[in-house]
Design goal:
This protein is α/β, with parallel strands linked by helices and about 350 residues long. It has two domains: about 170 residues, Glucose-6-phosphate isomerase like protein, domain 1 (Rossmann fold, 3-Layer(aba) Sandwich), CATH 3.40.50; about 140 residues, 3-Layer(aba) Sandwich (Rossmann fold). Helix content is about 50%, strand content about 15%. It contains 14 helices and nine strands. The strands form two sheets. The protein has a five-stranded parallel β-sheet with strand order 2-1-3-4-5, with helices on both faces. The longest helix has 22 residues. It is globular and about 60 Å long. The mean pLDDT is about 95.
Length: about 350
């Protein structure tokens, strides 16, 4: 088994490590009235999952920063969380500098790099994790660390309510699911349908984070073009865009995530969206999320999408680990910046 597949298999172990370690952290914080999370690519997955799962219980506003600019409203009552797997992300380093200048409270989540050095130099709040269960060393395959480091810390701060027993049950469930994916005929059927297609992913409510994560995995791991849309927003414009180009029926495939926990209104929207898409000649696949609650469904779909994107890379004759174009871009950008 190669190291990419091992990283996928070890997803639940990443989650458990991050949860147990962050629950033991003692942070030096004062009153917090807003939360700003800085992260790029896979390092922002925790933000998307946080909003998808806990939006109805967050007692402070939460914003994502995925550029170089810190919002003006950030002050000494703002906790700025800097999330970077490598610890060397340009945007995150810039945000940390500005947060410190403004007197914001800060927290670093990383596995090393320049952020680790700054953390020790300036004695900053931190969770510097050892990358024990991600042999591929790829950020997009470290989802467990990204999600549960943030969940554990925010649980400690009283910003979310996620009991330990709920986490343990969910991770015990996910631990059993990797073996269920291997040789699954439904996955084989899905792969046949989506090979050599551009993909549009659809979801809503608590699964909105999953289509974002799956989109990134398909781009980086499978090396294919994919995008996503969220319901109900997409119903106000997307369906009119299925008519052109006229090659859409031959090149486009829609993958829709379903959940037993969607509200009735969203379920009705999904059914109608699928109906109109088919009337436009667009092929459609439905993925039913597995799990006894919303947390389990989110985690199962991360495992599922990681595995599917890995298998699709192999079908495409691509190395699922390498990201040659992204690496080239970063190299040339670094050269331009001196």
């Amino acid at each position: 088994m190669d190291d990419v597949l091992k990283s996928i298999q070890f997803f639940s172990k990443q989650c458990l490590q991050a949860w147990e370690e962050t629950r033991k952290l003692s942070l030096n914080t004062s009153e917090i009235d807003r939360l700003a999370i800085a992260g790029m690519g896979a390092s922002a997955y925790g933000y998307y999952a946080l909003r998808a799962l806990f939006d109805d219980q967050l007692n402070v506003p939460v914003v994502l920063i995925n550029d170089y600019h810190l919002p003006k409203f950030c002050n000494d009552k703002t906790l700025v969380v800097i999330m970077s797997f490598s610890g060397n992300t340009q945007e995150c380093l810039a945000i940390l500098e500005k947060a410190l200048e403004k007197g914001c409270q800060t927290l670093i989540i990383s596995s090393g790099g320049k952020l680790q050095d700054l953390t020790r130099e300036k004695n900053l709040n931190n969770y510097l994790f050892k990358n024990l269960w991600n042999p591929s060393n790829q950020p997009r395959l470290a989802c467990g660390y990204t999600l549960f480091s943030l969940f554990g810390i925010l649980q400690n701060l009283g910003i979310i309510n996620l009991p330990d027993d709920e986490v343990n049950k969910a991770l015990s469930f996910i631990e059993t699911q990797f073996g269920e994916l291997e040789g699954n005929p439904k996955i084989k059927d899905l792969l046949q349908k989506i090979t050599d297609r551009q993909l549009l992913l659809l979801a809503g409510e608590h699964l909105s984070a999953n289509v974002h994560i799956f989109r990134n995995q398909l781009n980086e791991t499978s090396k294919i073009f994919a995008t996503y849309a969220l319901l109900p927003e997409a119903n106000h414009h997307l369906l009119e865009g299925l008519s052109h180009p006229k090659t859409n029926p031959q090149t486009l495939h829609i993958v829709s995530f379903h959940s037993q926990f969607y509200t009735p209104k969203l379920n009705k929207r999904l059914v109608l969206t699928e109906k109109i898409s088919v009337q436009n000649g667009i092929n459609f696949s439905i993925i039913e999320a597995k799990g006894k609650n919303k947390l389990e469904e989110i985690l199962w779909l991360i495992l599922f999408s990681s595995y599917v994107s890995y298998k699709l890379a192999l079908i495409n004759g691509e190395d699922p680990k390498k990201i040659e174009w992204v690496d080239l871009f970063k190299k040339e950008l670094a050269a331009q910046n001196g």
